[in-house]
Task: inverse folding
């Protein structure tokens, strides 16, 4: 089955810096890669996603890139703000059907003013 | 505008008890999922259901069972709770053919 590895597990940046979180996946048939943000005490929420027929997608200060050959994808946050502090999860679709997502272990991002 | 509701936010149970965690969604989603969230391990899939009365094992089903008697409700059952089942449990739902998950707020279960 699919396996997703996420790095780093913790990331600390100064406000205004950029943050990058990387994930690798094992199943070359995976075709959907979402990123979720979970603020303290709240539910995970989808912030951006990318499909395998696209190499990059941007939404304001966040972007996701996908390298299908290398089987890795990354989340980029520019001009970080304290409200970006949260746990971020990457995920990859499981090719076995039923719309299952396999999640990474998460990255705790701290943005310091 | 809460759309996926988990019945309890915090729960404390004793070892050996039978525990029911309830999840209800009002979006008419076909798919429903139960994950457990542990630090350093992320979200791991326990069970999922793609239709009423249909269920499939996820990656860590041991010690758990599920029930889906109605489309909007998906229950996770711990047959005999153990301390290693202390965790945050997250329910999610989506439309069939769609990966757009909506998560519940989670139930933090402590087994003592």
Result:
């Amino acid at each position: 089955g699919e396996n997703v590895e996420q790095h780093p597990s913790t990331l600390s940046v100064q406000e205004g810096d950029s943050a990058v979180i990387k994930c690798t996946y094992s199943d070359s048939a995976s075709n959907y890669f979402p990123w979720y943000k979970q603020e303290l005490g709240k539910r995970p929420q989808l912030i951006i996603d990318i499909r395998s027929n696209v190499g990059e997608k941007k939404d304001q200060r966040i972007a996701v890139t996908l390298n299908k050959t290398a089987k890795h994808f990354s989340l980029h946050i520019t001009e970080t703000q304290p409200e970006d502090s949260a746990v971020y999860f990457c995920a990859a679709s499981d090719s076995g059907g039923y719309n299952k997502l396999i999640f990474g272990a998460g990255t705790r991002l701290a943005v310091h003013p | 505008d809460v759309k996926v509701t988990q019945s309890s936010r915090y729960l404390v149970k004793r070892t050996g008890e039978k525990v029911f965690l309830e999840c209800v969604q009002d979006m008419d989603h076909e798919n429903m999922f139960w994950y457990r969230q542990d630090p350093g391990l992320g979200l791991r899939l326990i069970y999922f259901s793609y239709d009423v009365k249909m269920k499939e094992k996820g990656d860590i089903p041991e010690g758990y069972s599920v029930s889906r008697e109605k489309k909007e409700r998906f229950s996770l059952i711990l047959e005999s709770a153990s301390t290693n089942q202390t965790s945050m449990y997250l329910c999610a739902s989506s439309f069939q053919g769609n990966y757009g998950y909506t998560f519940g707020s989670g139930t933090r279960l402590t087994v003592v």
User: Anything to note?
Assistant: Chain A touches chain B through 23 residues (CB under 8 Å). DSSP finds no helices and eleven strands in chain A.
